[in-house]
Amino acid sequence: MAAFEEFFASLGGKRIAVLGLGVSNRPLVRLLLEFGCDVVGCDRTPREKLEEEVLELERLGCKLHVGDDYLAGVEADMVFRTPGMHPGNPAIQALKERGAEITSEMEVFFEVSPCHLIAVTGSDGKTTTTTLIAEMLKAAGKTVWLGGNIGTPLLPLVRQMKKEDFAVVELSSFQLMDMKRSPSRALITNLAPNHLDIHKDMDEYVDAKKNIFRYQGEGDLLVLNADNPITASFRGPGQTKVFSRLGEGHVCIRDGVIFRGQTPVLPVSDILLPGVHNVENYMAAIAMVEGLASDEDIRQVAKTFGGVEHRIELVRVKNGVRFYNDSIASSPTRTIAGLRSFPEKVILIAGGYDKHIPYDPLGPEICKHVKKLYLNGATGPKIRAAVESCSGEKPEMVDCGDFASAVKAAAAVAEPGDVVLMSPASAAFDQFKNFMVRGNYFKELVKEL
After folding, report:
1. pTM over the 0.85 mark
2. How confident is the model at residue 193, as a pLDDT?
3. How far apart are CA 221 and CA 206, in angstroms?
4. Which of these, 296, 407, 309, 394, lies nearest to 349 by C-alpha position?
5. Which of 208, 339, 438, 441 has the least CB density, counted as fewest CB within 10 Å?
């Protein structure tokens, strides 16, 4: 019996609690019901605001615990934790003390997947780099399953996978916190303060990221960013290789060409995506696919890959003004990378949900790269304070309150030749469900201009 069938057959008749009924956990609930489990779906969303798909799960047999007290009175033999819920949550700890096994969709996927596992984490660049790796492997003729923190939940698809396939997954710090298995090839793009609204401190955040390589074997590969002061000191149990845009590494830049070892692989000028951070994303991907994709496969991807939605995405050119959607930029380091992608000073729209991370490093970059700044959301005052603390010339700053007002105000002052960049340096949760909803709303507003 395959590992997948063996695992789910062992759950038949058991009480299973699924914490969080977002998009990634809904296929999991269907799967558990298929194998005869007694499933309780728990979600903070009040019943009157539940989506039809969640109500359909109830009709299929899932018991719903929803609303503010959604974790009260829950009993289970096994608990599937949603990635955004800290394992130290008192309700989770209470269930554990009563004998419940705590796991997650991704943790189980790593246990039962039959195919080669490649995983990417980091503070910035995860999604683009994960997608690049997948595209390079596809160009090499491999069957690739893209998932994790990006794309379709993978666990329900395991029955379609073959051992020669590749699963390329993006992993967040929340997904990694409980992981007890590492992929055969692991990559950390970089690390900087992030998600400190949920992690108790930076040490916990970094330690969670280390789980991506902590359980590797001697024959496994870890790829690291030598230019990042945190990741530069890491070493894996197997082979560790580094990439460096600023110095020497297994993958580095010489005379405008990305080299792997002594082999020239890709001229930087062939990369369609703007910004030095995307050069680093390519370097990381090139290190990860060594021996799996040819240099010609890599070059083909570089010449055709136009980027991932919500990542410095050109939305529209109107009256000579270019509007870019960089909604994925939920931290200062992401926005800094976006700002450095443009040779000219931009009109910046920033601000959003406060993850309790420092904004001091963003101030000087805004002064250097921004001519007008339109602020909104909870972090608007923090971003303003970071700019005001800088010496020298500062951009004009306008506090707009809400997101739509900031977009409209920025668009109103833009002149031919200007770049309007929505790169919030903040999460979206104060005004939107997630960064994708924020990005799509920005695109709607821009197209209505």
Report:
1. no
2. 77
3. 19
4. 407
5. 441
